[in-house]
Design goal:
With about 900 residues, the protein is of the alpha+beta class. It contains 31 helices and 32 strands. Strands 22, 23, 24, 27, 28 and 29 form a six-stranded mixed sheet that branches. The protein has a four-stranded parallel sheet with strand order 2-1-20-21, covered by helices on one side. The protein has a four-stranded antiparallel sheet with strand order 6-5-9-17. The chain binds one RNA strand of 83 nucleotides through α10, β11, β15, α14 and β29.
Length: about 900
RNA sequence: GCCCAGGUGGUGAAAUUGGUAGACACGCUAGACUUAGGAUCUAGUGCUUCGGCGUGGAGGUUCAAGUCCUCUCCUGGGCACCA
């Protein structure tokens, strides 16, 4: 009987669909397990072989957990709002909803072919009102919340208001930039607009003037992580700095909690490290430097307060508000010229240009301890957006300050011994303090707390922790996103009622900004409330819809809440999340923030959303190259190309097999190659190879559909996993897929003669059982560790051994089919059914390996001679001393080592015990 | 510059706590069966001057090192004037 994979796969996919095999419900009798994939953005290009890598891995794990008796939630959906659909709409006039729908349809077809066990009844799409209602709802909750540092959680703004009404700002400790103080009666005298202005500075979702990454080509604001090297991540358009009123989320309030909670997450160290760097906690102090001849002061943040006696100048960022105050009339012209230059330059240019630039303001500060005059400079190496936008410069112990001082001939004063500060700065945090009155002679690590204490007690500043993380800018001047549930009443931002949600995205006549520069929603007719107030015209960014989608999967049809308490308490959190590292500083931070916020408000029961995270690597394209002899129609095989002057062209990888070009197909590929001639090697045209991004323009895109057509999806799934560790990035190379195909074929042949299905009911031999149990043990462990490639190898070995033993025994094969099931579900179902089982293979139990059987067979023992040498040899457990000695001497290596030694002292002990003794 | 991750055959890669490096698969070589096929099966396949040598390189610890320590080189990823 032939292995007709296409028929088998069609049959079972249909069966699973008709019988709703993968539908899940909250079943309290079984433990839950939530396996989540990062849902895809449905792009027009469809899936290539790289996309399903993570999905296959999660599918294997989900199926495995099911077989282990868990109630597995394994959903899929679409991150459907986004720029490409909108760009396409601007170019073609096609509504993004239409193209998105088409793309989703295509994605679904492709995904279905791979045979995933998704519960499609739980599908979510971020662009649907039933879904984004809850994105808007969460935004409203953030609008109505503030962050209380005392209880260290989000609280209702209504409570804040009643505190203001009672005591003004007295006793309030909030995450805010607001520093003024007012009394209860001040508050009651504020008008509505003033009150709201104050409250905005406390709300977790708030409106603020911010410097934003403005992308003129896209007509929108981009988040920091959407900008790469000064151009937009999508499209590569230039980005500039611009001040705009934008909705923001107070992510910074959660910085410490985001950092702390990471400890207990099962994420890779490198990913945790990335998030840590992104959050960028630094401990230090804010220090006040009074400005000479003024009642004002400069505030600076420093991580090295111990070097305060080494300050020889101060530097302000070009954006600083203090510049006007400190600049003297004599220096004004120079300062203005400098600021003119610095401000025109975009952040990008400033970053690229590493030359040192700056200007003296003419003004001075007083040193807080020595009371000496310190000159104030302006320099663009100081950032307006970090710390206080001003620094105390210690050229002796900071590389950048040192370079600045050398350039402008400013004195360098050593305060920590250990280097030669005239030659280069000494930045290390070790050494003894010198030239530093109060802290002379102390080590750096002791000097820091001592000086901070002095600063604190003398009122010269305070201990301070700074974060690099910024609040998330949440407005986008785009069409294809969630509208804000906000309107403006006499210019005051006002929330809609929850009962008004969802606020649906309006129809517009075109998808670009209006002539007057308003966002596309400015084109909508009647974009206002029933009583005529204008609605917010921005929409939310891409990460809005993806921040809580995993919660929605728990209860996707609920129209009373994001997720019901019952569903949330059953599913709790994501046990396993699979996706790429590219979301490390975007989605994975915002999601954690969003979840913590909902946790504070009591809507979810877990503070962290993703318990374990596995990062799959990227699949790169493997391009094939051909070489044309310049000025001719001759193409020369790779090995001969050095003899000619050639130009290199990319060739469609689909007309190349094992790097050998199909020359006839090549002639037909493009009209201008129809007369191509070939200079061959051994009758073949060998192509060159390059590993690059998988992209249409490089003709290296491999479509999973083609592979599935040829080998079947079970082979495709196995091969993707067999390619190597899933965490690793690697180029796609279809050569080698034959191997896993042959494995399935062998498996099939264990049960089938040429004519029919055939299994034997004979009892298995010890050898056969050994093969089986070794395999089960290995695969079981490998799945848990995500070593799918070695797990597949183990199955191959087992099938090879069984084939050698001509074993077609039911007892063995029934178990083996279930082991194979997570990897290749279709063939497993088919074989399972042929074995005479009524239930599907996916509800059977994953077999348990018989450990006692394995232990009886072999036993690894270390051998010790004269209490010194120890090494291992596999021995049957029931060997007598004589047999052991015989076995030991039969071992080549052992024999060499033991030659001439007294075997009476040979001691054989179980391995585990020896290890314990040694340690 | 700083922080991660990783360097093993012609290729993708294996290798519990240090214990016969290269499992498994591709590719290659030879053979079998075949009136030819990109099918199947069998055997071989790290290098070698047949002494040995081999996990990027140089040292070290150990009876024993791909694995542990020190230095160094290379590749991939992240951050990048963060005071």
């Amino acid at each position: 009987m032939k292995y007709e994979f296409l028929q088998i796969e069609d049959k079972w996919q249909k069966f699973w669909k008709d019988n709703q095999t993968y539908k899940v419900t909250e079943d309290k009798s079984r433990p839950k397990f939530f396996v989540l994939d990062m849902f895809p953005y449905p792009s027009g290009a469809g899936l290539h072989v790289g996309h399903p890598l993570g999905y296959i891995a999660s599918d294997i794990f989900a199926r495995y957990k099911k077989l282990k008796g868990f109630n597995v939630l394994h959903p899929m959906g679409y991150d459907a709002f986004g720029l490409p659909a909108e760009q396409y709409a601007i170019q073609t006039g096609q509504h993004p909803a239409v193209t998105t729908e088409q793309n989703i349809k295509r994605y679904r077809e492709q995904l279905d072919k791979i045979g995933f066990c998704f519960d499609w009844e739980r599908e979510v799409r971020t662009c649907e009102p039933e879904y984004y209602k809850w994105t808007q709802w969460a935004f409203l909750k953030m609008f109505h919340s503030w962050y209380d540092k005392k209880s260290d959680k989000a609280q209702a703004v209504s409570e804040l208001v009643s505190m203001f009404e009672k005591n003004g700002t007295q006793g309030i400790n909030a995450a805010t930039e607001f520093e003024e103080e007012f009394t209860a009666s001040d508050w009651s005298n504020f008008n509505e607009s003033k009150k709201e202005e104050v409250l905005q500075q406390f709300r977790i979702a708030y409106l603020a003037d911010t410097m934003v990454n403005w992308c003129p080509a896209l007509g929108t604001v981009l988040a920091n992580d959407e900008v790469k090297d000064g151009v937009s991540e999508r499209g590569g358009h230039p980005v500039e700095q611009k001040k705009m009123k934008q909705w923001c989320l107070r992510v910074t309030a959660y910085a410490q909690r985001l950092l702390d909670a990471m400890e207990n997450l099962e994420w890779t160290d490198s990913l945790k490290e990335m998030q840590k760097n992104w959050i960028g906690r630094s401990e230090g102090a804010t220090v006040y430097f009074p400005i000479k001849d003024s009642d004002q002061r400069m505030e600076v943040f420093t991580t090295r307060p111990d070097t305060v006696y080494g300050v020889t100048f101060m530097v302000l960022a070009p954006e600083s508000d203090l510049i006007d105050l400190v600049t003297t009339p004599e220096q004004k012209e120079k300062v203005d010229t400098y600021l003119g230059k610095a401000r025109i330059r975009s952040e990008r240019e400033r970053m690229q240009d590493k030359t040192i630039s700056g200007v003296f303001t003419g003004g001075y500060c007083k040193h807080p301890f020595s009371n000496e005059d310190i000159p104030i400079w302006i320099g663009d190496y100081v950032l307006g957006s970090y710390g206080t936008g001003a620094i105390m410069a210690v050229p002796a112990h900071d590389e950048r300050d040192w370079a600045f001082a050398k350039n402008f001939d400013i004195p360098i004063v050593e305060v920590v011994s250990g280097g030669n500060v005239q030659e280069e700065s000494y930045d290390a945090k070790s050494g003894k303090l010198v030239n530093s009155e109060l802290i002379n002679g102390l080590d750096v690590k002791d000097a820091i707390p001592k000086i901070v204490e002095e600063i604190d007690s003398r009122g010269l500043g305070f201990r301070k922790i700074n974060f690099r993380l910024r609040d998330a800018i949440f407005s986008r001047q785009r069409y294809w996103g969630e509208p804000f549930p906000i309107y403006f009443k006499d210019g005051v931002p006002t929330p809609l009622e929850e009962s008004d949600l969802p606020l649906k995205l309006p129809e517009v006549d075109a998808f670009k900004p209006t002539e007057t520069g308003e966002p596309p929603l400015g084109r909508a007719e009647n974009w206002k409330t029933k009583d005529g107030h204008p609605l917010e015209m921005s929409t939310m960014p891409g990460f809005a819809g993806s921040s809580a989608y995993y919660l929605r999967y728990m209860d996707p049809k609920n129209d009373k809440g994001l997720v019901s308490k019952e569903a949330n308490e059953y599913w709790q959190d994501v046990d396993l999340y699979i996706g790429g590292t590219e979301h490390a500083t975007g989605h994975l931070i915002y999601s954690r923030f969003w979840n913590k916020f909902l946790y504070d408000l009591g809507y979810v029961c877990k503070e962290e959303p993703f318990k374990k995270l596995v990062n799959q690597g990227m699949i790169q394209g493997r391009s094939n190259l051909v070489y044309r002899v310049k000025g001719t129609k001759q193409f020369v095989s790779q090995g001969l190309k050095s003899k000619y002057e050639t130009s290199t062209l990319h060739v469609d990888v689909n007309i190349v097999e094992n790097d050998i070009l199909d020359t006839e197909a090549f002639k037909k590929w493009r009209p201008d190659f129809k007369d191509a001639e070939f200079l061959l090697e051994d009758g073949k045209y060998n192509c060159g190879v390059a590993n690059e991004k998988m992209s249409k323009s490089l003709f290296n895109v491999v479509n999973p559909d083609d592979i599935i057509e040829k080998y079947g999806t079970d082979t495709f799934r196995l091969y993707e996993m067999f390619l190597g560790p899933i965490q690793q990035s690697k180029p796609w190379n279809t050569a080698g897929i034959e191997g896993v195909y042959r494995f399935l074929l062998k498996f099939w042949k264990l049960f089938h003669t040429d004519e029919k299905f055939e299994v034997s009911d004979e009892k298995a031999t010890p050898d056969e059982l050994k093969s089986l149990h070794k395999c089960i043990k290995k695969v079981d462990g490998d799945i848990q560790n995500f070593d799918f490639n070695t797990g597949i190898s183990a199955m191959m070995i087992c099938v090879n051994e069984l084939t050698d033993q001509k074993c077609n025994k039911r007892e063995i094969l029934e178990k083996l089919v279930i082991v194979l099931c997570p990897f290749a579900p279709h063939i497993s179902e088919e074989l399972w059914q042929q074995l005479g089982n009524n239930e599907t293979a996916t509800v059977a139990e994953f077999p348990v390996h018989d450990e006692s059987f394995l232990i009886e067979t072999t036993w690894s023992c270390p051998i010790s001679v004269n209490g010194k040498m120890k090494f291992l040899i596999d021995l049957p457990m029931d060997f007598s001393k004589d047999q052991i000695e015989e076995a030991v001497m039969a071992d080549d290596r052992t024999k060499r080592l033991l030659e001439g030694k007294n075997l009476a002292k040979l001691i054989v002990v179980p391995k585990k015990i020896v290890n314990m003794v040694i340690k």
